[in-house]
Write a structure and sequence with these properties.
The complex is a heterodimer of chains A (about 375) and B (about 90).
Chain A lengths: L6 H17 L4 H7 L4 H10 L17 H14 L3 H21 L2 H13 L4 E4 L15 E5 L2 E12 L6 E7 L9 E7 L5 E6 L10 E12 L3 E2 L5 H15 L2 H20 L1 E2 L2 E2 L4 H30 L3 H31 L5 H9 L8 H11 L3
Parallel strand pairs in A: 1-4
Antiparallel strand pairs in A: 2-3, 3-7, 4-5, 5-8, 6-7, 9-10
Helix pairs in contact in A: 1-3, 1-4, 4-8, 4-9, 5-6, 5-7, 7-9, 7-10, 8-9, 8-10, 9-10, 10-11, 10-12
Chain B lengths: L1 H14 L20 H15 L10 H4 L2 H20 L1
Helix pairs in contact in B: 1-2, 1-4
Classes of the chains: A alpha+beta (about 375), B mainly alpha (about 90).
Amino acid sequence: MDFSLSEEQRDLRAAAADFARGELDRDLEARDADSTFSRDAWRACARFGIQGLPIPKELGGGGADILTTVLVMEGLGYGCHDNGLIFSLNAQMWSLELPLVKFGTDAQKQAYLPGLIAGELIGVHAVTEPESGSDAFSMRTRVERDNDCYVITGTKQYITNAPIADVVLVFAAHPDRSKTAGISAFLVETDTPGFSVSRHLEKMGLRTSPMAELVLDECRIPEQNRVGPEGAGMAIFNSAMAWERSCILAGALGAMQRQLETCVEYARERRQFGQPIGKFQAVADKVADMYLRLEAARLLIYQAAWLGQQGSAVAAAAAAKLFTSEAWIASSLDAVQIHGAYGYMRESGIERDLRDAVASTIYSGTSEIQRVILSGMLGL
Amino acid sequence: MSDGIIRNYISREIIRDRAVALDNETPLLEEGILDSLALLRLVVFIQEQFGIVVEDVEIVPENFASVEAISRYIDSRGDRASRLGAT
């Protein structure tokens, strides 16, 4: 195992943090309160090269390997307090762009990747439904062939980026086939007749990342918009999930680093009973635990990214996702507690990290599902 | 030869004590013998056992529909590796 970082990789991480500090947090408190997505920040990220970073250069991307991409997202999470923006970026990169690179036709790549990379198009995939969450392949959205078209009907729920998306990778089931062999994936443009955003959803955290329910009412999709062969939906979904599990919480590493530094600084300056609160063991222990969680999470994510590049990281990716999400929540709670009443106030921004962190044990496979994967890989 | 190894692995590690008859033509996906997690485990096993990297785009029904399909896929990967090694 060798994932020691090159000087170039360290520079890229630092450059992402510098970029994020300068451009991405504008009006964040108000946007968090109003659940407002920042298209300006999205375009700024595209100009910096975030959306195209892991896409091969011949397709117009940055050609970075996955570990380098993870490092840049970590830098972004350190400099940018808008975890919702980073969540939206992740949703597009791992669930739409990489599946397109791996499974898409040349025509599909040329039609969508340049716009997605340039920040002119926004996309995501749509899997979850009212009746199927963790049991994703029990989906009820149906697809039927009609000459040179497919007709898709169903409802998708909790879809990140849905209200702002231009293109959605929709997963649907062929009614006459089994759930593992009978799922296909289709690129659906959001101005397709029959496609609608039916309900905007208000969230506890990640509020700057819009989410909605989608309805597909006999949407006619041309055959050339099917991604991969018929029945490849499970392979496409598993491929996207493998990358998401490994990489989606790279931004959380940056956020946890920022939290740790903020807490150390506060614990050194804030005085009670005649001394800095960091001199009290109860506070110092929390800071030590935050450091421990951060370093362990960082190693797990770097390892999962590195192993993924070598070919397989099923258990490592599940471990990275599981540990980092739970570590982020625990450290966010510690950060609020160390800051006391001030940490609980919205103006501090510290409670926002906690609200944003809570979702991380739910999206991209719940903690319970990660444990199922881990125990399954161990032979149980 | 790979079909026996694959059949034994699926019987031992995936089907276990369930009453499921398994031969080389049993439809693994259609019958629900391979769910998404079982498929991930099987892919990891194939990679370790046969020393090949199974690409995401290759984990499709055509290659994993039955023991026979999996065996055919593994053999084709071996042939490809041999050809690459010869050039």
